[in-house]
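Per reviewer request, we include the raw input and output of the structure prediction for the construct analysed in the revised manuscript.
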Amino acid sequence: MIKSTIAELPKNVDKEVKIGAWIANKRSSGKIAFLQLRDGTGFVQGVVVKSEVGEELFQTAKSLTQESSVYVTGLVQKDERSPFGYELLVKGVQLIHSSVDYPITPKEHGTEFLMDNRHLWLRSKRQHAVMKVRNEIIRATYEFFNENGFTKVDPPILTGSAPEGTTELFATKYFDEDAYLSQSGQLYMEAAAMALGKVFSFGPTFRAEKSKTRRHLIEFWMIEPEMAFVEFEDNLVVQEEYVSFIVQSVLKNCALELKTLGRDTSKLEKIKAPFPRISYDDAVKFLQEKGFDDITWGDDFGAPHETAIAESYDKPVFITHYPTTLKPFYMQPDPNREDVVLCADLIAPEGYGEIIGGSERIHDMDLLEKRVEEHQLDTETYKWYLELRKYGSVPHSGFGLGLERTVAWISGVEHVRETIPFPRLLNRLYP
């Protein structure tokens, strides 16, 4: 007897295996019972034929309730009708634990109900598929940066300062001084880049934004690379190559999950570098021509503006050279225009909005000191950050990719709350 997982069944065709599983669903007739089995690695149908297993085992199979846990033995068979391509001809069923009154039944449930039961909703086929896509993006992220000479560095989550101001930060007491939950590891990653050249971080970040849009979470995960001796244009190349890599990895390794989610993969197949670019100046003109009378030069773009721009392209699009007044203090001004900075936001297609923000960083000590003063930041708090420009300063660049928005776009789900196991929203800290 071979002990197997559902994912390993294709390697055991025409062999008898034993799997541990839960009953996701079932249906039966007088002579055959169909058990929808899941074990975390995948889903497969178990077929119980009364004439082959006998009355007692058949009745056991028929009586199994949703989410009961079982050991199942059976013969692995190919099945072209199955999305998975295989099924299990059941020979034996051993009940481990009987589930009673499982709350998420095979019917429509409201969003709030499902969110209250997120610890159980994760078990569904759709949520399983989203989590598998998320996992593949994470796996591909490590592969991309490891293969391209980056070193993984972990910045602190508790910080004494804020890279983009303190208005949207969660404050806490750090013994006898103030501290904040990190909204970005970027400043620390710049220090790491001065030591290790090319680095990336991957960790949780927190924004105390009172936003309820489908693109926002209070707690989310960021991938933040920083690169010494890399200027603006080369930074964009790394971004488009990275995004292309993770999309193609998902297409290759999550075909079944994308099918489960009903994702139009033809749109993802087009996601290959290079990506189109449009300057902020041209984006404003484009929007005005499209009838957005509310937008003038110097205004930030909202979701409708980003979506209108993205609809003109079938790939992610860079919006570059935003006004200096719209961006954080650390961004390098365009040498030809002091009113704009060398930055870019990468806007995903299909209305998913900004997935990357990045820029070349200021490397001139005098200019950075001036910016700190202009933004009314405490010089002493940022002393260490300023010292990076004092001891061997070099041109350097970086960016941050929001994992959950990227998962939402690639998997095709509407709301980011489905892209993280336990979402933290404005009105939700449970479960």
